[in-house]
Each structure stands twice: as structure tokens, then as C-alpha cells.
Amino acid sequence: MLARHPLSARAAERRLEERFGSAGDDDTASARCSALQPRPAHAIRWCRIRYAHGGERTVIVLSNPRGHELLVER
User: pLDDT tens across 4-25, in order?
Assistant: First the structure.
């Protein structure tokens, strides 16, 4: 779970940067998320995480009907 309440795009990006960045070395992460895309029973946000060394990762932030923000890794 990323959060127990709805997040703005920037707040989601900050949480992802904290989660996927590593403070101990040069593996810092920069996250960018799409706008929230509503679906019938939830909403999703696509996020791309980029690392200083050139690596990338895509994750999905799912907002469920209770307002919880869930992280889905691809």
C-alpha cells in the first residue's frame, strides 16, 4: 500500500521516489506519474521511475473504492 488516502500526482511521485530511491549510493530515483484515469470501480495512474544510472521501471498506482492508493509493479 502506498497510502491510505488519495494522493495528488506530485505526492505519489514523492512517495515513489522515496520508496525506489536509495539514499546510500548514486541510485537516486526520479518519478513522473500520469493524471488519474478513472475506471468503473477504481482509478489508475501510470508512473515511470528513472534512475541516475539510466535504468527505468514502470509501476501503476491503483486507487481503490475506499481511497487507498495501491502499488502494482509490472
Answer: 998 999 999 999 999 988 655 5
| Beta strands 69-73 and 37-38, pairing class | unpaired
pLDDT at 28: 81
CA torsion angle for 58, 31, 37, 7 (degrees, to 10)?
A: 130
Give one word for 21, left, alpha or beta, with left for phi > 0 and alpha for psi -120 to 50.
Answer: beta
DSSP string, the chain: --BSS---HHHHHHHHHHHH--TTSS--EEEEEPPPEE-SS-EEEEEEEEETTS-EEEEEEEE-TTS-EEEEE-
